[in-house]
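During the reporting period the student researcher (J.K.) took over the structure-prediction task from the postdoctoral fellow and processed the backlog of single-chain submissions. One of the processed entries is reproduced below for the supervisory committee.
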Amino acid sequence: MAEAKRFENINRIPALTWNWLKMNRDSAEIVPPGFFEPEIRSIPKGFSVIREGAIDLATFPALKAGIGEELSDYLEKNVFKGVGQIITLEESSEQPFVLSFNPAESSKSAGGVESIAASQIIYARANTEGTVIFVYEGGADSSKIDSFIRTRVYAEENAKIHVIKVQLLGKNQNQIDETSVLVKENALVHFTQIELGGNHVNSGLYTELSEHKARFKSELAFIANGEQHFDINHAVIHTGSETDTKMLVKGVVDGNALKNYRGTIDFKRGCYGATGDEQEETLLMSRTAVNKSIPMILCDEENVSGTHGATLGRLGAEELFYMQSRGISEEEAKKMMTRAKVTSVASLIPDERVREKIEAFLG
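J.K. obtained the following structure tokens:
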């Protein structure tokens, strides 16, 4: 067994809060992973795929790591080494580009390694529109294989790219999923994320709205139950003028699960006219479940507008009485409310097979 290395600054919040809240960062022990490439269902018209080493990467400016510089630098030097896939949206495409990740199967093909890692660049050329979908699959009886996914997204002028990540891993699998995004003038990056499986899951997102009227929109849906630990850190940095962010988080925490969410909108000097809004709706289904949320706005520019809020609560007696009066048991009512948090976001996925996988996972 390879020796694990511990990292203490995973998903570090941009502006530290009180240490006793235990919200500033997460930590994890990492077994050095083997590199792999995901399965590609097909390459739709309008997309192309090449290896990173095939072109000059100067086209893609460096981006801050979504998960944290310490771990990101370690993976680059020891695993990725500038190797990965570049998925380019050459012209608008109505068909989504779908990538499938199965850590247990990938581990077998890589000689039985304990952890695996993959890296992709998504490059949307100017004036294009398309969708890229990531599906992480495991299964209830999957082997304990950790996975590390790095995704960098570049949206040129007037591009519209929808990036979707669906996590359906086995209950004993750990994952660290990093996404870094750069959005240029009048472009839109739409990010949809669904977190359902896994054991200890870290998801880090860093987005920079670098030019005039760049936009970012996201929806995150999750169900954390049993002993699951979800640690999520989303940060959107406004540097361009009249840029806009809209972030919505909705989910359920049940059993003995723990969910941490850090959502930051950062208005930098010079982003005059920028707007941002982040909202969270989380339902606690168990008295032993733990939910921690920090919706945060940082501001270094006067002429901006930012709003945030979080609605955290339990399924109330009135709602239960209303459903029971219509023949719905308490257990069925909880299941309906839980599924609704996810299905409302899953309906945004423009691929029937992926939506069916989510329905099957929910049971």
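The committee noted the following: Residues 2 and 266 are 39 Å apart (CA to CA).
J.K. will present the remaining backlog at the next meeting.
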